[in-house]
Amino acid sequence: MTRALPTIVHLDADAFFVSCELALRPDLRGQKTAVGGRERGIISSASYEARAAGVYTPMPTKLALRVCPDLILLPHTSGLYGKKSREMFDRCEALTPIVQRNSIDEGYLDLAMCGFKTAAEIEARVRALQQRIWDELQIPTSFGIAANKLVAAIASKARKPRGFTVVPPGQEAEFLAPLPIGVLPGIGRKTEERLKAAGLQLVRDVLALTERQLEDTFGNFADEVRRMARGEDDRVVHVDHEDAKSYSQQETFGEDIWDFATIERIAKRMIDDLMPSIRADGKRARTLTVKVRYPGMEDSSSGRSLSESSDLEAPFYPLVAPLLKAAWTKRRPLRLVSVRFSGIEEPAAQLEMFGQTDEKKRRLAAVLDKLNTGKNPTVKRGHQLGGERG
Q1: Angstrom distances, CA of residue 238 to CA of 97, 101, 122
Q2: Which helix (DSSP H) or strand (DSSP E) does residue 332 occupy?
């Protein structure tokens, strides 16, 4: 009988946006650093040293500086995070072609078809990948290896930063049992507090409930919560070749966010991160879609198309606010926001009377792309001056 192998891998970059900045400023490693806007801004990524001092995302920057007076605040570098993300996942695809890019800083790998014979061989190859990402990109990462996506994702967060956790097949429930109930997907901070007040603190406490108690506590989600507590998950790793069809980026917030202006700035900065990739690929986009996610994992989205495709940021900026309003219909805080460019096209020959004007803007954008991927990027757009992300 062939022994089952843990072939699902979850990669989760550590403090990704700060790590990208520290790759440009290695002299700051080990210090209390964060990415954020100094005026009217929020902390959008904090080093683990800063977190230990009480800094979290999305804490207002002014509060963060009071909590941690020696915090080193770094500005958001346009285009850097998307570039580092692509480079990181390119190295994952050198190990297996079955890679699911969940967001800019995390994703899944499926090693089932790679021909590995033992769990030790899988562990060795994934450790080598982790080391390669650090050696070549200076991005620290954490990995979880298990028999399914749910357990692999939880395992990758178990020993951050630079964590590495393997859960052997058959030991999923045993691994999850002593963990806080909040590790289960869909259980946010407020729900976790409510469950703890009801005596449910650990994952094992879920499995101790009777059928009636489980239904009274979780309602229609009772069966799903029970399956998660057992470590059961049959989802497959989806390979979506986004580069040919769409370009997307999302951010999950450490704390749910109410402020519309903050979300709008974050969405615009995603446009700033994605558009250089579209230009580099020689493509143009026609459609922008904004998606929001509420704390209960419910998604809502809205999209709009330009009359003509473009590879410039400016035509898409005015769409952000109306799309966000159309998607954010419930007056509840948001857990996540994402933007996606689709309707990707090859540029046609420019014959319009004003074609030269756009071509000048395009050449300027190409210059800015180069400046903003250097070691000392300094060119900023207006919405990058407050509430920096990363």
Answers
A1: 11, 9, 20
A2: none
DSSP H/E element including 284: none
Residues 6, 143, single domain; the answer is yes
* Enclosing domain of residue 291: 242-384
Which residues share a beta bridge with 108? 10, 100
In angstroms, the CA 124 to CA 133 distance is 14
Indicate whether 389 belongs to any domain: no
186 to 57, 107, 156, 317, 367: CA distances (angstroms): 19, 18, 17, 31, 43
Backbone φ, ψ for residue 215 (5° rounding): -70, -40
Look up residue 239 and give its amino acid: V
Q: Are 220 and 265 part of one and the same domain?
A: no
Active site residues: 106
Length of the chain counted residue by residue: 390
Cα Rg of the chain, angstroms: 22
| 8 A C-beta contact, residue 231 and residue 177 | no
User: Which residues in the chain show pLDDT less than 50?
Assistant: 1-2, 241-244, 349-357, 374-377, 384-390
Count of domains for the chain: 3
Is the Cβ–Cβ distance between 46 and 103 less than 8 Å? no
Q: Which of 197, 339, 215 is nearest to 270 (CA)?
A: 339
| Residue-wise burial string across 312-350, b where 16 or more C-beta atoms lie within 10 A, e elsewhere | bbebbbebbbebbeebbeeeebbbbbbbbbbbbeeeeee
In angstroms, the first-to-last Cα distance of the chain is 48
Q: Are 72 and 78 in contact (CB under 8 A)?
A: no
Query: Is-contact 61 258, C-beta < 8 A?
Result: no
In a domain, 201, yes or no: yes
> Quick one: tokens of 236?
């497959």
Quote the DSSP letter at residue 43.
E
Does this model's pTM top 0.85? My answer is: no
Residue 235 tokens read as 């989802």
Please report, for the chain, how many H helices and E strands are present, in that order: 15, 12
Q: Taking the CB of residue 49, how many other CB atoms lie within 10 A of it?
A: 19
In a domain, 390, yes or no: no
8 Å CB contact between 153 and 235:
no
Q: What is the pLDDT of residues 67-115, one digit of tens each?
A: 999 999 998 887 888 889 989 999 999 999 899 988 889 999 999 988 8
Examine the domain organization and report whether 180 and 164 are in the same domain: no
